[in-house]
Write a sequence for this structure.
């Protein structure tokens, strides 16, 4: 059905004159996949951060390569092992004209743990941060429990609001728009739930004046509907272009597709811990007496059985990059010397035979089918490729509402082989190491997302050392060392790095951000 | 009449409680919504805090009783995702869906019934047969595909109509609706046509078979013998008698459309409750799901009630409350 429609779209749009007369040259309409939550401290998601950073602003912002740049703070440095100092920009005003000072920052951080009923509190971004105090009107100290090198990336996630609002406003006030006062380049004009968000330029913004006087985000979560809205000229640009439509849009003369690398790596977890794993069976269907993933030969076999080029080519329409490790190139800890595991089914079969499975075994792979780009299809491709080395595969894609509770329940059954994605923008480096590779340790607050229960004491020690190393280069060197070790040990099977795809009409340029944020300020009119 | 109303109200309350219990337990069985919503970069401590925030650390029976107690006061909980009362989230978007349904059913009725009368009275000749065959398309073409094709033709190719979204909202007789503006009508037309195809086909076939059945009845022969024209017989006499099944089906279909116009709303990005419920299920936003189902049950009950009352108007032989006289 979708293919038929897509090729119809292609045929028609090649023939049709596409552009309507734009109502006003300074108005931009964006078809966005995700809607926002009006209270900036209620639910921490990438989509929300994307909206709030443009309306409220944060101390620092992430650039296209997910590196920190000044925003409401001009400079930052460490004072001692447990204190970071941020010098705030002077002369900044909020949308209601009140001046921005350190008191607003302190009040904002105080509000974060106290938002009632918050399903995803922003305190999740502040692991390791103990307190935030004002030293004077334009200096703020962030106090940490121990040396914490990632504080700049962490504070870039927090939208700053005026202190009067932080102290008294409720979530309901934000929902009506009354409390939506920020210091970002755009202010909220109208919000219609489920339909659109209208923003207008804030003329007293401290930075470069944005080119657009008015910007409207229309929420269109259905992929085909979003592409249709773009082709019909109802919107000037769309984000999250589905890979299957990218090549067709590229052939449309009036559209430009901007592609950039994302911070997200897609990989497979395996059950490293249990002696008997529930979803690995013998060829008759009875659970295997011994967990095959505990044998590194089996893990290496799976690594080499997967043809990443074919997945990128056919399933992802060339809009991904085969992955060699758990961070994309350009992020801290990335080691160029590590190669993408080679596709070698013969080697895989011989490894399996060596490990004692000459006829293979039965295995179930689990994955979400509505969370990452083409996740269900990737899963099926992986299942097929593993079947070719002799494993009797069952592929189980499921909606994320069922999948995530299942695999994140550390005490429950979880899965034996399952798909996951991780975006590294909130650290700018391999933060999967401390949240995903380090042994699950509730007291140390590490390894919360170590869903395969991988445990490598040597890696743990190095990760903990990196966590307290404030010098970035030294830290990245340690991280690269850990990554080399765990990739050789096949702690996870890396698949590919995703890309970010945004389509604009001709005459607009857009700089893609690795953290997948859709930013109005990055849309520029071309002469 | 009063006894009838009371009886119906009691039935409805029982259904509401049972349904709420089923939905509550069902969602609980799927899993913990926190893991769907929380950002993976958060620590365990924050996850635990979120679970406490949402009240999900209490045992299931305690959560349900708390829900019942609040429900008595009209508070159906706060949406996990939207940070607003679940009821408010639904009621905000209900007008959009009601507009869409109203226009869609109007199109279905205005087109379907006359077409059904024609198909029934000219059953053997070309128009009759052509219409019957066309009605099959109305059932079998998938709504998703029809919607995208309508967008392709009228929005992308011809540029007559917008491809999605709801139009400007104005005030009509004191009610805020997008049907008060021409921009609103431009936006509602395509999705309403899309949604109307199935009920239109259904109505057409029902009316057609009703007409064929009635045409053999004695009173029709007598009327013809009296010298009345075929058209007058059709419209004044036969039509009224085909209405019972038509009203029944229209009631059910309207209820179904209100509850489940998901596909059309998704394809046309129409900000109604169909789209809301799908998004909420995907994110396990339990308060919204429960509130939504309860409202849907109420809607169906109300429609059933209206249908029964309409019966007694159409056919004076029918007494409300059943045949116990």
């Amino acid at each position: 059905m979708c293919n038929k429609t897509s090729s119809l779209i292609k045929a028609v749009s090649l023939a049709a004159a596409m552009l309507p007369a734009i109502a006003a040259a300074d108005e931009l309409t964006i078809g966005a996949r995700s809607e926002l939550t009006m209270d900036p401290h209620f639910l921490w998601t990438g989509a929300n951060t994307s909206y709030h950073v443009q309306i409220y602003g944060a101390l620092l912002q992430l650039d296209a390569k997910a590196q920190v740049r000044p925003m409401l703070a001009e400079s930052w440095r460490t004072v001692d092992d447990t204190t970071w100092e941020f010098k705030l920009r002077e002369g900044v005003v909020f949308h209601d004209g009140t001046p921005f000072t350190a008191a607003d920052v302190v009040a904002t951080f105080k509000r974060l743990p106290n938002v009632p009923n918050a399903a995803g509190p922003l305190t999740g971004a502040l692991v390791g941060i103990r307190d935030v105090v004002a030293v004077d009107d334009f200096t703020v100290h962030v106090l940490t429990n121990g040396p914490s090198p990632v504080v700049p990336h962490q504070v870039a996630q927090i939208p700053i609001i005026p202190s009067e609002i932080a102290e008294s406003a409720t979530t309901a006030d934000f929902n009506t728009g009354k409390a939506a006062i920020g210091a970002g380049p755009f202010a909220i004009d109208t919000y219609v739930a489920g339909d659109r968000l209208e923003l207008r330029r804030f003329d007293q913004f401290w930075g470069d004046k944005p080119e657009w006087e008015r910007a409207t985000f229309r929420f269109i979560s259905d992929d085909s509907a979003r592409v249709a809205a773009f082709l019909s000229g109802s919107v000037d640009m769309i984000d999250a272009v589905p890979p299957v439509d990218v090549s067709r849009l590229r052939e449309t003369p009036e559209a430009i597709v901007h592609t950039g690398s994302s911070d997200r790596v897609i990989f497979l977890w395996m059950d490293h811990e249990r002696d008997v794993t529930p979803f690995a069976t013998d060829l008759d269907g009875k659970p295997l007496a011994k967990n095959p993933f505990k044998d590194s030969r089996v893990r290496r076999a799976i690594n080499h059985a997967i043809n990443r080029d074919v997945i990128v080519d056919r399933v992802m329409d060339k809009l991904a990059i085969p992955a060699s490790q758990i961070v994309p190139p350009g992020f801290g800890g990335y080691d160029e010397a590590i190669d993408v595991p080679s596709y070698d089914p013969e080697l895989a079969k011989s490894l399996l035979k060596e490990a004692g499975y000459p006829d293979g075994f039965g295995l179930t792979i689990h994955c979400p089918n509505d969370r990452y780009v083409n996740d269900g299809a990737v899963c099926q491709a992986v299942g097929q490729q593993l079947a070719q080395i002799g494993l009797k595969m069952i592929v189980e894609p499921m909606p994320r509402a069922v999948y995530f509770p299942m695999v994140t329940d550390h005490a429950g059954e979880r899965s034996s082989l399952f798909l996951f994605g991780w975006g590294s923008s909130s650290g700018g480096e391999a933060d999967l190491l401390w949240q995903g590779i380090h042994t699950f340790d509730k007291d140390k607050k590490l390894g919360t997302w170590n869903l395969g229960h991988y445990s490598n004491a040597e890696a743990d020690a190095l990760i903990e050392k990196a966590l307290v190393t404030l010098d970035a280069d030294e830290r990245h060197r340690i991280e690269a060392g850990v990554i080399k070790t765990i990739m050789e040990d096949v702690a996870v099977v890396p698949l590919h790095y995703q890309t970010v795809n945004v389509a604009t009409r001709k005459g607009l340029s857009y700089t893609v951000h690795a953290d997948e944020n859709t930013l109005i300020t990055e849309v520029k009119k071309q002469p | 009449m009063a006894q009838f109303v009371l009886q119906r109200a009691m039935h409805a309350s029982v259904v509401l409680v049972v349904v709420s219990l089923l939905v509550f337990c069902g969602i609980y069985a799927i899993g913990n919504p926190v893991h769907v919503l929380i950002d993976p970069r958060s620590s365990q401590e924050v996850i635990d805090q979120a679970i406490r925030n949402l009240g999900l650390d209490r045992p299931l029976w305690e959560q349900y009783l708390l829900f019942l107690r609040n429900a008595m006061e009209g508070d159906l909980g706060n949406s996990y995702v939207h940070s607003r009362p679940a009821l408010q989230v639904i009621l905000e978007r209900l007008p959009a869906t009601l507009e869409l349904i109203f226009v869609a059913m109007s199109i279905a009725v205005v087109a379907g019934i006359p077409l059904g009368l024609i198909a029934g009275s000219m059953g053997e000749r070309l128009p009759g047969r052509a219409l019957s065959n066309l009605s099959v398309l109305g059932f079998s073409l998938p709504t998703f595909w029809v919607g995208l094709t309508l967008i392709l033709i009228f929005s992308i190719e011809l540029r007559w109509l917008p491809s999605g979204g709801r139009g400007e909202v104005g005030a009509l007789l004191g009610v805020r609706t997008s049907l008060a503006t021409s921009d609103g009508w431009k936006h509602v037309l395509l999705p309403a046509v899309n949604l109307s195809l199935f009920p239109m086909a259904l109505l057409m076939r029902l009316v057609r078979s009703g007409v064929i059945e009635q045409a053999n009845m004695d009173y029709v022969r007598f009327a013809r013998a009296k010298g009345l024209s075929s058209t007058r017989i059709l419209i004044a006499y036969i039509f009224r008698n085909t209405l019972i099944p038509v009203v029944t089906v229209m009631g059910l279909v309207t209820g179904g459309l209100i509850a489940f116009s998901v596909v059309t709303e998704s394809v046309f990005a129409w900000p109604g409750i169909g789209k809301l419920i799908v998004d909420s299920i995907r994110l396990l936003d339990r308060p919204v799901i429960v509130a939504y189902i309860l409202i849907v049950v109420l809607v169906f009950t109300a429609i059933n009630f209206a249908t029964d009352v309409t019966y007694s108007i159409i056919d004076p032989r029918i007494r409300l409350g059943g045949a116990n006289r």
Summary: The mean pLDDT of chain B is 83. Chain B touches chain A through 61 residues (CB under 8 Å). The beta strands of chain B are 170-172, 175-177. The longest helix of chain B spans residues 86-121.
